[in-house]
Amino acid sequence: MIDTLKAVEADIARRLVAGEHDRRSAMHTPVIATADADMRVMVLRHFDEDRWILRFHTDSRAPKVAAIAGGAPVGVLFYDREAKVQIRCHGFGRIEVDGSVADRAWNESTNFARRCYLGAGPGEGAVGPTSGLPERFEGVEPSDGDLAPVRDNFAVLIVELASLDWFYLSNDGHRRARLERTGGEWSGSWIAP
User: Which stretches make up the Pyridoxamine 5'-phosphate oxidase Alr4036 family FMN-binding domain (predicted)?
Assistant: First the structure.
């Protein structure tokens, strides 16, 4: 059993690293909440363990982009049902459409993944059930030329973590810790579940 705050910090980091690299990890698809109380599941694309920064891919036309802009509060909820561990993260988000981080993320994506940005903007109305993609790209990988005009629709959401709430469910008694980041270091305390 985890019994020190340093072990809690290490457990969280280990789980987030796994969430980035293992698409079967429970930490791979957390719930993201924005200041307008809207929530959605997103794919964790990168976790910078040194700086405690999360990266997600998004559509620059999505409503969350305006809600987050350049520094709004963002909540991230991870839950591993099998391990009985919940991690609530709070931080500040920013959206990057241009620049080296967004360019690198776009270039590292496959054309099949990039095809999402060929379609209608998130939340746009439709006359029936739709993927939003142009019909010719349903189930088809587009070429680089097909994708070049929609690069501006791609963005990254960066979340700099400021606080963590780790909760472990146990028949022997739940455990909970809260960590805050100041000056690049985590400090915290045990709290009642």
Answer: 32-93
Burial of residue 153, with CB atoms counted within 10 A of its CB: 0-12 exposed, 13-18 middle, 19 or more buried: buried
For residue 42, which of 23, 29, 59 has the smallest C-alpha distance? Answer: 29
Q: Where are the domains of the chain?
A: 5-113+154-190
Of the candidates 83, 92, 117, 91, the one whose C-alpha atom is nearest the C-alpha of residue 102 is 117
Closest CA to 157 of 30, 50, 49: 30
Average pLDDT over the chain, rounded to an integer: 95
pLDDT above 80: residue 70: no
pLDDT for position 69: 82
CB 118 within 8 A of CB 142: yes
Distance separating alpha carbons of residues 61 and 173, to the nearest angstrom: 45
- Give pTM, 2 decimals: 0.94
Q: Are strands 85-96 and 39-41 parallel, antiparallel or unpaired?
A: unpaired
Residue 23: Cβ-neighbour burial (10 angstroms; 0-12, 13-18, 19+): exposed
**Lowest-confidence segment of 74-78, 101-105, 120-124, 159-163 by average pLDDT:** 120-124
**Residue 178 backbone zone (phi > 0: left; psi -120 to 50: alpha; other: beta):** beta
CATH class entry, domain 5-113+154-190: mainly beta
Instruction: Provide the token pair at 94.
Output: 């920013």
Please check whether residue 27 is in contact with residue 16, taking contact to mean a CB–CB distance below 8 angstroms. yes
